[in-house]
Specification:
The chain is an all-beta fold. It contains no helices and 13 strands. Helices cover about 0% and strands about 45% of the residues. The radius of gyration is 14 Å and the shape is globular. This is Ricin B lectin domain-containing protein.
Length: about 150
């Protein structure tokens, strides 16, 4: 499937959990990966900007971004009022999955689902690209109704 502008659930290929903005009332709140609950805080609107993508949370319009706009490994992903652009490309492991990377020149990191606590959600960070069978940097985009 090729991506197009629309509203999606972004699902971890590793866990099947969904990219979530748990606190929609606070700017710079960390994103997590949680079980799908059908909530609007788990919906993301994608909009293509040239060959890049803007993502926006369905509830409050927050953009997945990085702390202080850093794009180095182990940087947390937060929901921010500041628009941030991403490169979204098919995974080399499986073309039905995607990898999400900052559009910054020289940023060779991917959005990665890190280990998390049961019920609390896994943290989401930038991390250096993995090669091989690891799926925690791969994401499915499942289109949902607005």
């Amino acid at each position: 499937m090729s991506l197009k502008t629309g509203t999606y659930k972004i699902v971890s290929a590793e866990s099947g959990e969904v990219l979530t903005l748990p606190n929609t009332e606070v700017d710079n709140s960390p994103l997590t990966c949680c079980k799908s609950n059908g909530g609007n805080n788990q919906k993301w609107t994608l909009r293509q900007v040239d060959k890049l993508w803007n993502l926006r949370n369905y509830v409050n319009g927050s953009h997945p971004s990085t702390v202080a706009l850093r794009t180095t490994s182990e940087t947390p992903i937060i929901g921010s009022s500041v628009e941030f652009l991403w490169v979204i490309q098919p995974s080399e492991q499986d073309k039905s999955r995607y990898r999400i990377s900052p559009a910054e020149p020289g940023a060779y990191t991917n959005i990665t689902m890190m280990e998390g606590s049961e019920g609390k959600g896994a943290s989401i960070q930038l991390f250096d690209p993995f090669t091989g069978p690891a799926k925690n940097q791969d994401w499915y985009f499942e289109q949902v109704e607005d």
